[in-house]
Amino acid sequence: TGGAKIEADVTVFATGFEAAEVNLYLNVIGEHGRKLIEEWRQSSPEVHRGCTVSGYPNLAILLGPNTGLGHNSVIHIMESQMNYITDYLAKLASLGNGYLDVKPEAQRSYNDQLQKRFRGTVWLSGCKSWYLNARGRNTTLYPRSNTSFRRMTRSVNLSEYNYHPSAI
Questions:
Q1: Is-contact 84 48, C-beta < 8 A?
Q2: Where are the domains of the chain?
Q3: Fewest C-beta in 10 Å: which of 11, 31, 44, 137?
């Protein structure tokens, strides 16, 4: 807006409908040469608050692991994620040149809570379904309400991230 030009390194992936399994399109390289696809194949896909991934600074994913719904519209989820990413970028800009990276313990805690929420639900009742990956873990759906997701992604909690100033 206002004719300002902003340079940015941006990559957009449109990956289709492979919901539960990790595929080659996730050829993302993180800190210290980490490869997202390899990490997710060795364990299970995980993100923090539906958007960011520890060890992959400034990476934001839309409709990634545990953001699908079996009970409502994903448009609401995407809008919530875009609000979160917008707040993330605003907070990053206010900090100056650098990057944010999710603390591993914040991501781990978030995902542990998600998996606990699935216990006793139809989505983890022992049936085989597309919701579950090859390990039987639900990495596809968000187990709470859209309102809960919207509240959770309303703003970025900087205490869940490490800020690294740029050397430039």
A1: no
A2: 31-165
A3: 11
- Where do we find the tokens 């448009």? 75
User: Which H helix or E strand runs over 36?
Assistant: helix 36-42
HEC readout, 54-121: CCCCCCECCCCCCCECCCCCHHHHHHHHHHHHHHHHHHHHHHCCEEEEECHHHHHHHHHHHHHHHCCC
Give the Cα separation of 103 and 159 in Å (integer): 9
H helices, E strands: number in the chain:
4, 2
What pLDDT was estimated at residue 17? 55
**Res. 8: pLDDT tops 90:** no
Q: Quote the CA–CA distance of 163 and 144 in Å, as a whole number.
A: 29
Could you tell me the CA-to-CA distances from 31 to 28, 54, 123, 131 in Å, in that order? 10, 9, 34, 30
**In this predicted model, what pLDDT tens digit does every residue of 54-76 receive, in sequence order?**
999 999 999 889 999 888 888 99
Mean pLDDT of the 131-136 span: 84
Question: In CATH, which of 3.40.50.300, 3.30.420.40, 3.50.50.60, 3.30.70.1230 is domain 31-165?
Answer: 3.50.50.60
